Amino acid sequence: MMTTALAVLGVLALLFGAILGYAAIRFRVESDPLVEQIDDILPQTQCGQCGYPGCRPYAEAIANGDDINKCPPGGEATVRKLADLMGVEPKPLHEDAQNAVKKVAFIREDECIGCTKCIQACPVDAILGATRQMHTVIVDECTGCDLCVEPCPVDCIDMIPLIETAERWKWDLQAIPVRMVEAD
Amino acid sequence: MQSLLEQVAAEQLWRFPGGVHPPTRKAELSKKPIASLPLPDKLYIPLRQHIGVAGHCLVQKGDHVMKGQPLTMADNSMSVPVHAPTSGLILAVTEHTSPHPSALPEPCIVLEPDGLDEWRERAPLHYSQCSTEQLLERIQQSGIAGMGGAGFPTHLKSAVQQQVELLIINGVECEPYISADDALMQEQADTIVQGIEILCHILEPKAVLIAIEDDKPAAISAMQSACHGRQPWFIRSVPTKYPSGGEKQLIQLLTGQEVPAGRRPIDIGMMMFNVGTSFAVAQAVLHDIPLVSRIVTVAGDTLQHPQNVLAPIGTPVSDLLHFCGFQPERPQRVIMGGPMMGFTLPDLSVPVIKTTNCILAPTQQELPAAGEEMDCIRCTACAEACPASLLPQQLLWFSKAKDTEKLDEYNLFDCIECGACAYVCPSEIPLVQYYRVAKAEIREQQREALKAEQAKARFEARQARLEAEKLERQRRNEQLAVERAAKQSANAPDAVAAALARVKSQQQQTPADLEAIKAERERKKQLARERQAEKTEAPANAASATDPRQAAIAAALARAKAKKQAAASDSEQVHPQQNQPEQTATKPAETAAASEASDPRQAAIAAALARAKAKKQAAASASDTGQTEQEQAKPAETEAEQATQTAAEPADTVKAEPAPDPRKAAIAAAIARAKAKKQAEATPASEKTGPEEAKPEQADAASASAAQTEATEQPSDPRKAAIAAAIARAKAKKLKETEPK
Amino acid sequence: MSFRIASSPHQHNQKTTSQLMLWVVIAALPAIAVQSYLFGYGVLVQLLLAIVTAWASEALVLMLRDKTILPRLKDHSALVTAVLLAVSIPAYAPWWLVVIGTAFAIIMVKQLYGGLGFNLFNPAMAAYVLLLIAFPVQMTQWLPPTALQQHALGPLDAVCAVMSQASCQGISLEQLRQGVDGMTMATPLDTARTDLMMGLTLPESYEKPLFQGGVGVGWFWLNLAWLAGGLLLLQQGVIQWRIPVSVLGSLALCSLIAWSVNPDTNFSPLFQLFSGASMLAAFFIATDPVSASTTARGRIYYGVLIGVLVFVIRSFGGYPDAFAFAVLLANMAVPLIDYYTRPRTYGHKAVKGRQ
Question: Given CB atoms, is A175 within the 8 Å cutoff of chain C?
Fold first, then answer.
């Protein structure tokens, strides 16, 4: 009796195992390669603040087990998405990279000597100019990655916060300054 | 089955879901005649008062303008001009608090009326003889944008290719208090009808439907008599319910049809204009009066005479309120727009613009401020009030969770922000505010996503380009090598001999090079020692600063000579970069600097050179230890300085100008920065070995003296200030870096 | 002068949440009066205990959660939970029963899910089910209606009975539970079910004194009082018609079918609608906005589900009254119902479940 039960259960186990195994092979869902998925999550600023030369190399590094919290431009949201994808716990961003004020590079043009160093540094070709001509930043293309600031020999590049416009305003009613005027 | 037009003709009305019935509070206002506001002291005319882009500003401070003169120029179709509401003087073109919920400053023309109210020349049109293009051009040039509140340029809306079945004229002012359109219909029904005829001329609709709420009997009868006899025009009185004046809701109410999501009414053959817009069209076409004034309802219990006022565009709200006898409470709420969709103003200098239909200054009893926000109890009063059949309670939940996917699934972007949900919410949750924030955030995310996509594309394009360039270079080098090999093999057929010769020449060159470097290093050390001694004595002494400078010149000259030698020997090499990659990198530049430059621009190159050199040197010295590091850093700096100097001088002499090249200033700044950087790098490192030395002060003093010499060297340079600034900046940076350590 | 910045709309016109809750309590008053008339002052004692416990536990949790206490107590949601639980408990059940139940309802079912608006289950019903499962004896000790009681209990007796399970004269609850005919009394539903199991037909069972007036002494009047309160809520716009109508409609329909098949073993629709907690549940419990479905169509399905479940449990289940179970089961189905009954947004095609 006992042996029959064991045998039946064993056969059943084998049977189900076989079915499951077959199903796993037969109904396998082909998904994007992991690197592609990670790369899609990364903000593509190509800033290199993660220590890799661009987003894709970092995506490859994450796929190979690097930390997911090295992307300051992506912020917490990116870390969370990466954590979801990789099935790990979200970590806080590295160091003090959490200040999320959007910035763009600005070249003080009367000080620029036209050395093209910043052009070479810019990962997204967002700086216009030629040798010995003053350079300028295409604000719409600038990702605010900071990479042009360091190479500038005359320190004429500033990272300035994006000016808030009415179109981009996020309905922060608390931030509206109420002007005090004299009662009359 | 009746056709839609037959159903409309049969006076059939449909209904839309939801809606609320706030007290209308219009009875008193709509009986009063429209008052005319005396000209204000100043008018603030924002450059952009519609949806789209601002026109190009045509006037500047001090200009005198006539009434109706365009102040901006519409340079593309998304733009409409603004006009001078009266004759007067342009005081300024400046930033001013915008009539926008954000109250962010926007460019504004400040006009001081001269009181004469002089018109520019006007050219009325006979619309029946005009082409559609002419009329649309006139509508655009008259600055007409939808006056119901959205402010969409009217010429854009009218320029459609599709057949317009039904032209709907919206006289449904569903928000409480607002009776501007009501007053307009009562007093100007004939002009409105003329405007509708012009629109009919442009659009050729099959029928015209004028919708007016049933709480405005006077307006209905005025319009009825004005439209009398016109076919097929229908005037429809619709039940009073908020928000039946919304475009989509009114279409549903009048025709039972829905505008598909993401489409426009014209896609179902309908076109809707506000009565104010058709009035403005008539004025523009028939009298060439651009949109320079509008009727504003000024209401609220803090006013002694609430009424409808004809106000010039740009009138500050304070003028309007005081005209109506404003007696503010404190704190006072002043709302631009109606109580359901308007926004509060942070100050009263905000101007009236083309879309301003109401200024509301209620007392606290009249419209109590919202109470404390409580938890949502999911009572779904909001869902029952929603005219778009959304589920506001779910949207609130997802908005709080910032779940953009769910928000999209629950159609957040179909919310018209009418405020009916928040109006009925028993927990007084500011639902609309949550949705606006969520919408703004989603839009921002979409912008970011788009930008990321572009950045990625640009990055990849750049990578491809760099890769291609690299390959190209490689190919060229290989080709050159092949050519040279061919040449050499022609001279010496034995390849082994050639290789031997190469090795020999390498051996020859290397010791020479090493010697040069060694000598150079010695000199630098010497220099640094001298400088150190001098600095400890009198750091601020400008005269003593010239001493090490002379030494540096000598050093640099010697070095340059040595380098040139090396370069000369290098040029014989087939693969020079194999031996000394670091040094060869600077060599072409070096020779360029050494060669007598005639172009003043050469200076810039020299500057870059100097920087590169300095950097390399700094890198080299990093491998050394302790004291020597600092010593070496200093000569490098003087060297850099000197290189620039030598490069700049020939330029000057060629030009034969006593005034130095302006570029020199930038160079000097660059030098200062390079110096400071290096110093900063060197100082903390050296402090590890010799902590008792007062390094930061010393470094500071060094750069100060350098700055001084520079200043004395170029006294006539107008850019001196910039240099000084750069130096100061560098200094500050350095101090900041060194002090914490 | 200074200006006040606020978000539109700048005008509100609706009863506040606390007013809505208060209306629920007000609408419950006639039924509470009837219930205490029928079953004695014990009802009031239970109410008092429940309300005090509810307030105390709500305040405690709010304090622990670091939230403002007073505004949240003032929303009266705890009061409503307390009232609904207290009226569902036998009038002379021991005091700790109602205290445990209310504390469980407020702390576990409501606050631990995130407070008002976040609870998945109806707190009163969840607590009722807990008590029914954990303390089945105490929870089914309904005294016979006062008219059938041998001993009448005064207000003081009621307090004693709840606190010590005996009247001040020392008559134990066991004795009190015996009716005039010396038989232990249960609720009419209970009695009828027991009789059915003992092989009696319903008409035979209805012969008992408990069933005077058709559906049991007093219970009919009690349900009428709840119905009146419910109509008041409807009239005030506190609740919408969909849930009560669909609950009662589906219950009536199911029982009508069953009854016409075999009137001997199935309750009549009238008996179903006016016995037990039918009216209370249909108007006061199933309509709890937090745990009910939130879409118009969803509310119909939700109500129908409750009605059918009640019928099934009453007819075939092991528990006498079924509303608590039915409501909790329907609560579980709410997210699903809501998801599949989303209304069609303006300008969109009808939503299909999932894209």
Answer: no
**Residue range of the domain that includes C151:** 17-172
Mean pLDDT of C204-226: 69
The total domain count for chain C is: 2
Closest Cβ–Cβ partner in A111, A115, A124 for B462: A124
Residues of chain A with Cβ-Cβ distance to C1 below 8 Å are 180-183
CB pairs under 8 A between A and C: 15
- Amino acid at position B26, single letter: K
The verdict on a CB contact (< 8 Å) between B102 and A169 is yes
Please count the other Cβ atoms lying within 10 Å of the Cβ belonging to residue B659: 12
The reply to whether A138 and A105 lie within a common domain is yes
**pLDDT value at C219 more than 80:** no
pTM here is: 0.74
Residue bearing the bigger pLDDT, B577 or B298: B298
Residue among A178, A180, A183 whose CB faces C5 most closely: A178
Query: Pick from C1, C2, C5: which is nearest to A176 by CB?
Result: C5
DSSP B19-80: -B------HHHHHSPPEEPPPPS-EEEES--SSS-PPEE---TT-EE-BT-BSEE--STT--
| Domain hosting residue A158, numbered range | 101-164
What is the structure's pLDDT at B594? 42
| Contacts of C274 by beta carbon, 8 Å cutoff, 6+ apart | C215, C219, C220, C223, C224
pLDDT beyond 80 at B660: no
Residue C248 one-letter amino acid: L
What confidence tier does B431 reach under pLDDT thresholds 50, 70, 90?
Answer: very high
DSSP calls for B433-460: HHHHHHHHHHHHHHHHHHHHHHHHHHHH
Nearest residue to B673 via CA among B663, B685, B681? B681
Which residues in B lie closer than 8 A to residue C8 (C-beta atoms)? Answer: 335, 337, 339-343, 417, 419, 422, 432
CB contacts of B422 in chain C (<8 Å) are 8-9, 12
**Which chains lie within 8 Å of chain B at 3 or more CB pairs, if any?**
A, C
Distance from CA of B709 to the nearest CA of A (A): 19
C73 to chain B: nearest residue by CA? B374
Closest CA of chain C from B352, distance in Å: 18
**A180–C6 C-beta distance less than 8 A:** no
Least trusted range by pLDDT, from A16-30, B387-401, C158-172, C254-268: C158-172
Fold classification of B370-491 (topology level): Fumarate Reductase Iron-sulfur Protein; Chain B, domain 2 (1.10.1060)
Put simply, the answer to whether C2 touches B331 (Cβ < 8 Å) is: yes
The pLDDT of C255-264, averaged and rounded, is 88
> Which two tokens mark B167?
């032209």
Contact between A90 and A101 under an 8 Å Cβ cutoff? The reply is no
Residue A49 is which amino acid? Q
CATH number of the CATH domain containing A132: 3.30.70.20
pLDDT of amino acid C354: 41
Q: What share of chain A is helix, strand, coil (3-state, %, to 5)?
A: 35, 10, 60
**Please, which residues have CB within 8 angstroms of residue B554's CB and are 6 or more apart in sequence?**
B523
C245 and C290 inside one domain: yes
Regarding whether C145 and C206 lie in a shared domain, the answer is no
Considering CB atoms only, which of C10, C290, C344 is closest to B378? C290
The answer to whether residue A179 is domain-embedded is: no
> What sections of C169-316 are H helices per DSSP?
173-176, 188-197, 202-205, 219-236, 242-261, 269-273, 278-280, 296-316
Q: What length is written for chain B? A: 741
Comparing alpha-carbon positions, the chain A residue that sits nearest to B730 is A155
Q: What is the CATH number of domain B1-31+130-288?
A: 3.40.50.11540
Tell me: the pLDDT tens digits for B471-524? 999 999 999 999 988 887 776 556 666 666 676 666 665 556 667 777 777 777
For residue C285, give the DSSP letter.
I
When divided into structural domains, chain A yields a total of: 2
